[in-house]
Amino acid sequence: MKVLYDHKADTINDTVVECFEGRNIVFSGKSTSYVDIADYVDAHFTEKSDKQTTKSTLKWVHITISNAKRMLLGVFHKIKGKYLQLYLDEFCCKLNRKYFGNRVFERLTLAVAKSYG
Fold it and tell me: Rounded to the nearest 5°, which phi and psi values hold at 43?
């Protein structure tokens, strides 16, 4: 997750270039801010957001956003804009950690080794 301070096409394009590497497929809404994404990724699919799409295609996006809001309000109580990226980084770390299971030690060792490399 990355904090964006506006939804202009140039900002979104810069973020895509900065954050994506290798081969990528992007699914997005039909916002005019996303019109140039196809120039930077392998495939870009758009869907108009409606009630059915929200329940099926975008279900996990909405669940993740809800969980992030709940964590931010439950843990920090007061959110300051200058720390928002750090809050989101912590949320992503905790979310990703769920999927490591019994490989947590291996992942920690790798993270420590890369931080000194």
Answer: -150, 140
**In a shared domain, residues 109 and 54:** yes
Distances (CA, A) of 103 to 45, 80, 90, 109, 110: 34, 34, 19, 10, 11
Predicted pLDDT of residue 115 = 63
Structural domains counted in the chain: 2
User: Which stretches of the chain drop beneath a pLDDT of 50?
Assistant: none
Element (H, E) at 94: helix 84-97
Residue where a domain terminates, one of 30, 48, 66: 48
Residue-level pLDDT at 116: 63
Q: How far apart are CA 78 and CA 66, in angstroms?
A: 17
Residue 27, beta-bridge partner list: 45
pLDDT recorded at residue 107: 74
What is the secondary structure of 13-68 as a DSSP string?
A: HHHHHHH--SS-EEEE---GGGTTGGGTSSEEEE----HHHHHTTTHHHHHHHHHH
